[in-house]
Amino acid sequence: MKRRRILATVAMLAVGSGLVACSSDEGGSDASNCTNTITKKDLPVVTMWGWYPNTQLVVDNFNKLNNEVQVCWTNVGQGGDEYDKFQTAISAGTGAPDVIMVEADRIPTFQIQGALVDIKQYGFDAVKANYSEGAWKDVSVGDAVYGVPVDGGPMGMIYRKDIFDKYKITPPKTWAEYEQAAQKVKDAGGPLFGDFGANVPAVLMALQIQKGAKPFTSDPAQPNAIGVKLNDQASKDVLDYWGGLAKKGLVGTQNQFTPEYISGVINGNYATYISAAWAPGYLTGAGVGKGQDTGKFAVAPLPQWDSANPVQVNWGGSAFSVTKQAKKPELAAKVAYGLYADKESLTDGWTNQIIFPLNLTALKDPAFVDLKVAFFGGQQANKEVYVPAADAYQGVQYAPFGQYYLDAMEKQVSEVIKGSVTGSQAADRLQEDVAKYAKEQGFTVQ
After folding, report:
1. What domains does the chain contain, in order, with CATH numbers?
2. pLDDT tens column, 35-61
3. I want to staple 312 with a disulfide (CB 3.0 to 4.6 A). Which of 45, 57, 361, 389 is the partner?
4. pTM of the predicted protein model
5. What proportions of the chain, in percent to the nearest 5, are helix, strand and coil?
């Protein structure tokens, strides 16, 4: 799930040949040190790193149902901690697991180093129909598939029903309507309408893509060439829009995922929260929707830039990838395809708000679709907002230096918030920064 990006830090990865790992017969992490207990000891074992809260259940379910291979699971840390250990193993050419859980936007970073296996050759056709085209695109580089989708973050607009009712606001269907509603609430002496936080650059990236931006493009036939377009008109428009809202005092500029921000959400300091399908679970865990603000939240579809041409976007999501150090990649692929794919594991995941599932078995399950979400006062949020958004999502192409890009975006948004640059100027500066970095890493920038 997303949330991990806020905490995750990983060393920037050079593209030089010295970091490219080769497949090794001696590769793979230690299969004798499993967190789980393997009962079918006569079967071959595939090692796996992952950090989901219910991974023990997921692995036990897989091992119980499978008579060809067993999974030895180890939790080496969440997000950045795991990525650091994987990077060390890549550089050393040994010590990586056979299967690793990664956020979808990290896949190109490891793929460019030759650290992941294209699993399309290992049974892809048999499971292709289990996920949408957009879900597959997020874990692919060109025509090659480097991961199996598990969870995602189709986006929507969470809002305070009490604030909307008080100021007679209906959920805005466009971003123009969003600004009009924000102005109406401000003029009436109401709270901020939303938040323009510097530390959620992935949200801005998603909204830029929603408006038509294509930040990164590439051709698999030219792996060291990449298109970087971060200052096109769509990208500038989005940064100018949010910078304008902040300048007018219509939205706040507080970093999100902080105690101060959460306190503001609880106290009704914000009328809306632009976020993803995992947000209800995160907010519940942070103490929102309890006590004085119980039952005050609802969710609506994400506002559109062009209502005649709606575009759905995503924030977050993870996958299982097969590493080049896997001794038996075909068996490892079987594990990647099968983990978190059985009904019991999927149901446990969405019931306990651990994942927003991308497996169509769950997305089409009436129990999931028709769920009355307690955080939203019984609203059928999946049916009304998140499932349609997931179904319509077309996927995106991520960069092999995505973390650098997001960190650079955060710096530029901070400058917009300070008022030292406009959104358009920030986009130009971001383009210059990221293009320069890409060239330093050995890429030809197109």
Report:
1. 4-152+315-388 (3.40.190.10), 155-313+398-445 (3.40.190.10)
2. 999 999 999 999 999 999 999 999 999
3. 389
4. 0.91
5. 45, 15, 40
Residue closest to 251 by CA, chosen among 232, 233, 274, 228: 274
Q: How far is it, in rounded angstroms, from Cα 18 to Cα 21? A: 8
Both structure tokens of 162? 């009490």
Which stretch of 11-20, 338-347, 377-386, 416-425 has the lowest confidence by average pLDDT?
A: 11-20
Between CA 60 and CA 291 the distance in angstroms is 37
Q: How far apart are CA 303 and CA 159, in angstroms?
A: 12
Torsion of CA 359, 365, 368, 370, to 10 degrees: 140
Query: DSSP label at 382?
Result: I
Cα(145)–Cα(142) distance, rounded to whole angstroms? 8
Q: Which SS3 state, helix, strand or coil, does residue 116 take?
A: strand
CA separation for the pair 62, 420 (Å, rounded): 54
- Per the CB < 8 A criterion, the answer to whether 278 and 2 are in contact is yes
CB-based contact 226:443 (threshold 8 Å): yes
- Strand 194-195 and strand 148-160: pairing? unpaired
8 Å CB contact between 261 and 197: yes
Q: Residue 29 — pLDDT band, cuts 50, 70, 90? A: low
What average pLDDT does range 222-251 have in this prediction? 97
Measured CA to CA, the distance from residue 65 to residue 45 in angstroms comes to: 14
Where is 155: in which H helix or E strand?
strand 148-160
| Bridge partners of residue 194, in order along the sequence | 251
Given this model, what pLDDT does residue 140 score?
Answer: 96
Distances (CA, A) of 12 to 75, 85, 93, 340, 441: 23, 13, 18, 30, 9
Rounded CA gap, 255 and 30, in Å? Answer: 40
Cβ–Cβ under 8 Å, residues 399 and 215: yes
- Please give the angle made by the CA atoms of 55, 59 and 65, to the nearest 5 degrees: 145
Which residue stretches of 68-200 are H helix?
A: 80-92, 107-111, 124-127, 133-138, 161-166, 175-187
- Checking if the pLDDT of 265 tops 50, the result is yes
Closest CA to 73 of 96, 47, 51: 47
Q: Please, which residues bridge with residue 200 across strands? A: none
Which range has the worst mean pLDDT, 3-7, 161-165, 216-220, 441-445? 3-7
Chain-centre distance for alpha carbon 402: 12
Model pLDDT, residue 30: 66
Sign of CA dihedral 230, 233, 238, 242: positive
